[in-house]
C-alpha cells in the first residue's frame, strides 16, 4: 500500500487516459495520492479529481516559475480553496532559478505570501526547489515555516541541507531520480534520512524512474521508487511502503 505524495494527474499529458492511469496505480498497490495544483488551470482540476476518488487528495498553490502571474485575487482564491475537505496542503511553492520567466525578487515575495497563508489556514506546505536551496532555507526560517512543516518535494540536493529541513519540521520526499544510475545524491539521502521523515512520490508526468526514464511518468511507478529506496536502506518493500504511507498520513493529518 503506497502513497504517491506528489503527482500531476491534472496535467494535460493525462487528458486522454486519466481514469486508466489512476486504475493502473490502484492495481499496482498505489492506493493514495496527492494531486498538486500549481496555477489557475491545474488547481480546479486537482480538486475535481480528488472529489471523484476517496483516496486521492489535492494540494493548491502557485508554482515559482509562474510567480509573476500570481495576483492578490489568486492568493485569496487559494485561501478559499484551502477549506475544501480534500485539500491537505498548500503548494507547490518555492523558488526556481533554472528558468527566468519570473524575477527572483517576485518569486521570493510570492513564496513568502504562500507560507504566511499556509500558517493562517494551518496546512503543511509543499516546496519546489530548483537551484535555490540556500535561499529557500533562509526564507523558510525567516517565515517560521516550522509552524506548519511540509515536504521538500523531489529532494535532489546534498545530505548537508537535510538536517536544516528536518529541524523545520519538513519531510524529505524522493522520486524518480533516486533510481538513476548517475544520481548519487538522492541515493545517499535515501539512506541518511530518518525513517519517520521519508516520503515517496512520482512528480508524474515528469521524472519517470528507471527503466522508464524519458517516458511519461505515472503514479503506478512510485513502486519503482519505493523498491529502490527499500534496497538502499536494506528493508523490504512492504516495510518501506508501510513506513512512508504512515508518514504521509501523519503529515496530512489523515486517518488510516
UniProtKB/TrEMBL annotation:
| Keyword Metal-binding applies | yes
Q: Which PROSITE patterns match?
A: TATD_1, TATD_2, TATD_3
Question: Where does this protein hold a divalent metal cation 2?
Answer: 128, 153
Q: Which residues bind a divalent metal cation 1?
A: 6, 8, 92, 203
Keywords (alphabetical) are: Hydrolase, Metal-binding
GO cellular component annotations of the record: cytosol
Against Pfam families, the record matches this protein to:
TatD_DNase
Q: Which domain of life is it from?
A: Bacteria
Q: GO molecular function terms here?
A: DNA nuclease activity; hydrolase activity, acting on ester bonds; metal ion binding
Q: Note the NCBIfam families from the entry.
A: YchF/TatD family DNA exonuclease
What name has this protein been given in UniProt? TatD family hydrolase
Native source species:
Oceanobacillus jordanicus
Amino acid at each position: 500500500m503506497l502513497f504517491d505524495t506528489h503527482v500531476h494527474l491534472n496535467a494535460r499529458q493525462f487528458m486522454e487516459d486519466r481514469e486508466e492511469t489512476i486504475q493502473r496505480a490502484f492495481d499496482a498497490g498505489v492506493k493514495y495520492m496527492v494531486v498538486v495544483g500549481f496555477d489557475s488551470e491545474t488547481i480546479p482540476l486537482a480538486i475535481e479529481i480528488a472529489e471523484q476518488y476517496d483516496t486521492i487528495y489535492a494540494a493548491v498553490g502557485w508554482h515559482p516559475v509562474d510567480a509573476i502571474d500570481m495576483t492578490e485575487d489568486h492568493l485569496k482564491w487559494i485561501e478559499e480553496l484551502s477549506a475544501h475537505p480534500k485539500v491537505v496542503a498548500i503548494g507547490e511553492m518555492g523558488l526556481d532559478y533554472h528558468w527566468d520567466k519570473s524575477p527572483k525578487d517576485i518569486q521570493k515575495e510570492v513564496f513568502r505570501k504562500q507560507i504566511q497563508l499556509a500558517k493562517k489556514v494551518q496546512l503543511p506546505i509543499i516546496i519546489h526547489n530548483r537551484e535555490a536551496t540556500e535561499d529557500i532555507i533562509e526564507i523558510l526560517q525567516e517565515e517560521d515555516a516550522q509552524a506548519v512543516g511540509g515536504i521538500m518535494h523531489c529532494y535532489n540536493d546534498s545530505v548537508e541541507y537535510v538536517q536544516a529541513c528536518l529541524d523545520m519540521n519538513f519531510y524529505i520526499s524522493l522520486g524518480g531520480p533516486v533510481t538513476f544510475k548517475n544520481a548519487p545524491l538522492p541515493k545517499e539521502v535515501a539512506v541518511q534520512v530518518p525513517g519517520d521523515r521519508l516520503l515517496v512520490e512520482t512528480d508524474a508526468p515528469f521524472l519517470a524512474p528507471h527503466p522508464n526514464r524519458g517516458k511519461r511518468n505515472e503514479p503506478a511507478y512510485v513502486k519503482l521508487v519505493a523498491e529502490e529506496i527499500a534496497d538502499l536502506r536494506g528493508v523490504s518493500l512492504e516495510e518501506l511502503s508501510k513506513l512512508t504511507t504512515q508518514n504521509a498520513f501523519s503529515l496530512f493529518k489523515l486517518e488510516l
